[in-house]
Specification:
A nine-stranded antiparallel β-sheet has the order 14-11-12-13-26-25-24-18-22. An eight-stranded antiparallel β-sheet has the order 6-2-3-4-17-16-15-10. It has three domains: 115 residues, DNA Polymerase III, subunit A, domain 2 (DNA Polymerase III, Chain A, domain 2, Roll), CATH 3.10.150; 122 residues, DNA Polymerase III, subunit A, domain 2 (DNA Polymerase III, Chain A, domain 2, Roll), CATH 3.10.150.10; 114 residues, DNA Polymerase III, subunit A, domain 2 (DNA Polymerase III, Chain A, domain 2, Roll), CATH 3.10.150. Strand 7 and strand 8 form a beta hairpin. It is built from seven helices and 26 strands. The longest helix has 12 residues. It is 17% helix and 45% strand.
């Protein structure tokens, strides 16, 4: 009797690695279920659909293969990818028989235990609502410019997400961890309103960057509490965060006692220099604003002190204020313009940073108490 082949396909090594690369970020080192270590491989109609999930996010990527026997199986992700990466052969054959995946190449072969596809979590039925086709480049830029401001911890789950909020038929993206806030007004025309986990969107950005498509379809399914982002070959499902997002408009400062315009690169360099002397004091750097200059300094007893003075165009009161240097540097990294506009409302009030000629991206940073 001939052996029962559960799946068999021939693939191009480079194409397979390109398709699986974005999925690796969803594979946990200590998953709650063994099958979450695995990729789900499905072959049919000249394609292999490869799926990974951490239960919060499902990501599916397709690649062209020669299907000799269609089927579905799950395989340990890191073992399979690492082995195929180490091969030199361009063409590789995968076949599954009796719960074992055999990988055959011209110079080597491997046998890898599988887990039934029936044990792999299902994304469920997705009834598309609020469907929008958006420019991929604008979407990726907006996510990049705000995602780092979302909270990393889940003490307030809603703050671990990015708010997508309609603004006059267009779209604003907002993220805050309670100590800083980033807001990007895009020219994307959409009525999408949802809170999407920032971690899922960061993985999505990596995956979408590899796609050749110029546009991304975004749709929600409120019944399943999910959002879907889709291109021709890539599909990402993520759960939506429930809860009420903070009234960010109330957080944005509007009355300022002091404002300054400074060369972005000089400001970044000055904060970086000061931060070298702030590692033992919570990364706190001090700003002394006045007389057409900003003096940026930091000091610790064990390391020493440093100060840089940079020229500014300034108006308003003189000011002494301190910030977490990491918060400043992450915000400044998203400002593309040569000049950065700093607006202050006092030594204990939030400061606002934006590009001098573009107010579509705003960063709000709370000050910190500096020792001494």
């Amino acid at each position: 009797m001939l052996p029962f082949i559960q799946m068999k396909a021939e693939l191009i090594r480079e194409q397979f690695l390109k398709a699986t690369g974005p999925l690796v970020g969803l594979i946990s080192t200590r998953p709650t279920l063994p099958v979450l270590n695995n990729l789900l491989l499905s072959t049919e109609g000249g394609q292999m659909e490869i799926t990974a999930t951490n239960l919060e996010t499902f990501m599916q990527n397709k690649t062209a293969v020669r299907v000799l026997e269609k089927g579905r199986v799950t395989v340990p992700a890191r073992v399979l990818i690492d082995f195929i990466q180490a091969l030199s052969s361009d063409r590789i054959q995968l076949s599954v028989e009796k719960e074992i995946l055999t990988v055959n190449a011209s110079e080597a072969s491997a046998s890898i235990p599988t887990i039934s596809a029936a044990e792999f979590p299902s994304v469920g039925e997705f009834n598309s609502e609020n469907q929008t086709l958006v420019d991929k480049k604008k979407l990726l830029e907006a996510i990049h410019q705000v995602s780092f401001s979302a909270a990393p911890e889940e003490s307030r789950p809603v703050l671990t997400g990015i708010l997508f909020a309609p603004l006059g038929g267009q779209l604003s993206l907002v993220a805050t961890d309670g100590y800083r806030l980033a807001k990007k007004d895009t020219t994307i025309r959409s009525n999408l309103e949802a809170i999407v986990p920032a971690r899922a969107l960061r993985e999505t950005v990596k995956a979408l960057t590899e796609q050749e498509d110029d546009q991304v379809e975004i749709s929600t399914n409120k019944e399943n509490n999910q959002v879907r982002l889709q291109t021709r070959n890539l599909t990402v499902f993520s759960r939506l965060l429930e809860g009420t997002y903070p009234d960010y408009e109330q957080i944005l400062p509007t009355d300022f006692t002091s404002e300054a315009v400074v060369a972005t690169k000089k400001l970044v360099d000055a904060v970086k220099l000061a931060s070298l002397f702030a590692r033992d004091v919570g990364s706190v750097v001090r700003f002394d604003v006045g007389a057409g200059k900003i003096k940026i300094s930091a000091s610790t007893t064990s390391v020493g002190e440093a100060e840089t003075a940079i020229n500014t165009k300034q108006k308003g009161e003189e000011l002494k204020i301190a910030f977490n240097s990491r918060f400043l540097l992450e915000a400044l990294a998203t400002i593309a313009g040569d000049q950065t506009h700093l607006s202050f409302s006092g030594p204990t009030s939030a400061a606002l940073l934006r590009e001098e000629t573009d107010s579509s991206l705003l960063h709000v940073v709370m000050p910190v108490r500096a020792a001494g």
